[in-house]
Amino acid sequence: MNITRNNVDALNAVITIDLVKADFEGKVENVLKDYKKNASIPGFRKGQVPMSLVKKQYGQAVLFEEVNKLLQDNLSNYLNDEKIDILGNPIPVAKDIDWDADTLSFDFELGLAPEFTVDLAAGKDLTKYQIVADDEMINEQVEYIQKQYGKLVSKEKSEEGDDIRVKVSNEEEGISNETTINVSDIRTKTNQKKFIGKKVGDVVVISTKGLFEDEHKLMNVLNVDHDKVHGLDVEVSFTIEEVSTQEKAELNQEFFDKLFGEGKVTSEEELRNRIKEDAEKQFAQQAEQKFMNDVVETLVEKTTFDLPKEFLVKWLQTVGETQLTSEQAEEEYAKSENGLRYQLIEGKIITDNEMQITFDEIKDYTSGLIKDQMAQFGQLEPSEDDVTNIVSRVLSNQEEVKRISEQLMNDKMIKLFGEKVNAQTKEVNYKDFVKEVYGE
Fold first, then answer.
1. Tell me: the pLDDT tens digits for 382-438?
2. N or C: fewer beta carbons within 10 Å in the chain?
3. Which residues 6+ apart lie within 8 Å of 352 measured at CB?
4. String of b and e for 17-38 (b: at least 16 CB within 10 Å)?
5. Cβ-proximal residues to 383 (8 Å cutoff; 6+ apart), any chain
6. Distance in angstroms (rounded) separating the CA atoms of residues 343 and 239
7. pLDDT for the residue 6
8. Other residues' Cβ atoms within 10 Å of the Cβ of residue 397
9. By the 8 A CB rule, do 397 and 391 touch?
10. 138-164 pLDDT, tens per residue?
């Protein structure tokens, strides 16, 4: 056997593997002997079929299979030994093979990974957000929690923010439903005022057009299907059956213990600090992911290198369950090119910064995730044995190992980018962050 490499250019190569009969004849002969032992051909007892007949019936198929195994194994070993970094998989070059020749020659096209450098400091005008929980947000959250843990109290007359149980009807349109709406859910102040001050037995007649921000809300209130509610503009009667409000829970020790466990929080100030701390942890994750996305986008834009496009388009035609046309493969390449570029950039960053992940790191990281999750359900101090057992179960699932490894690498990348990428830190509250990032 002889393997040679011909570099077409910096991004393309052809591997040629020459096989002589001695490379595969023994393997073919051994497989055929096994076939002979088990062959069942009419007219012959099992194991007594002549080898000439076995070769005639199975010889060509076995030859193809054994040669293919030999090619794949040796090609893979050659690429590993020579440390050739390829994109996609080798593509066999189609040509006629004389299977009776003394030497069989096979060619494989390779797409080579480009050589390039990554400059983490190349990005300019990047912003790293620090999102703070301001007093307005904390006040809203305290009120929300108080209402969530409060109790429902019936009232004589409705006010803004009250819940109203109503019977909704329009006989001509076949509308009849009982539901509960909140006065604040109604879209305009003008329509809200029509419900304020009402008591049980009062009837409010109102147009359905623009009654709620979302037509799906109107669909649920009227109990009609999606097609009917679209553009619906009719008068509907709302008969008040009950008015109630959510009475806020008192900020006392019983309330604090219910939220955080006995004695963990003992004052409103500690409650507000805890809300601020928890909120800013969540905000930090969003800000970090936003920074990560911006860095990735910048690196893909600023890190320039060529790809073996022609090879990759050809390879994409062959890898799926359904063979693609050249036009379809071109479209698929266009959609996946930036993703491929970042995979190469990420791999280069990992190598340059020695960020390879060990199994011990995965175990420790998984242990931290499990402890955080258990804390959310009130198990603040789980035993190490319990955590270890859960970690073992989780890491016995290869899909979970892959998912956790990717999450760990993402965290490592965020930390590295935070240290090495040029960016200006900007402190904002959450509303301003959403407005700046998403324009909402």
1. 888 889 999 999 999 999 999 999 999 999 999 999 999 989 999 999 999 999 888
2. C
3. 118
4. bebeeebbeebbeebbeebbee
5. none
6. 61
7. 95
8. 11
9. no
10. 999 999 899 889 888 999 999 888 999
Please identify which residue in the block is written with the tokens 């860095």. Answer: 295
Alpha-carbon distance 400 to 384, whole Å?
Answer: 21
Task: In whole angstroms, give the CA distance from residue 299 to residue 342.
Answer: 8
Tokens of 76: 């893979």
Read off the tokens for 70: 């030999």
3-state secondary structure the chain: CEEEEEEEECCEEEEEEEEEHHHHHHHHHHHHHHHHHHCCCCCCCCCCCCHHHHHHHHHHHHHHHHHHHHHHHHHHHHHHHCCCCEEEEEEECCCCCCCCCCEEEEEEEEEECCCCCCCCCCCCCCEEEEEECCHHHHHHHHHHHHHHCCEEEEECCCCCCCEEEEEEEECCCCEEEEEEEEHHHECCHHHHHHHCCCCCCCEEEEECCCCECCHHHHHHHHCCCHHHHCCCCCEEEEEEEEEEEEECCCCCHHHHHHHHCCCCCCCHHHHHHHHHHHHHHHHHHHHHHHHHHHHHHHHHHHCCCCCCHHHHHHHHHHHCCCCCCHHHHHHHHHHHHHHHHHHHHHHHHHHHCCCCCCHHHHHHHHHHHHHHHHHHCCCCCCCHHHHHHHHHHHHCCHHHHHHHHHHHHHHHHHHHHHHHCCCEEEEEEHHHHHHHHHCC
Residue closest to 155 by CA, chosen among 176, 179, 183: 183
The encoded tokens of residue 24 equal 């595969």
* CA triple 418-403-376, angle to 5 deg: 80
Whose structure tokens read 């004695």? Answer: 263
Backbone angles phi, psi at 20, to 5 degrees: -100, 165
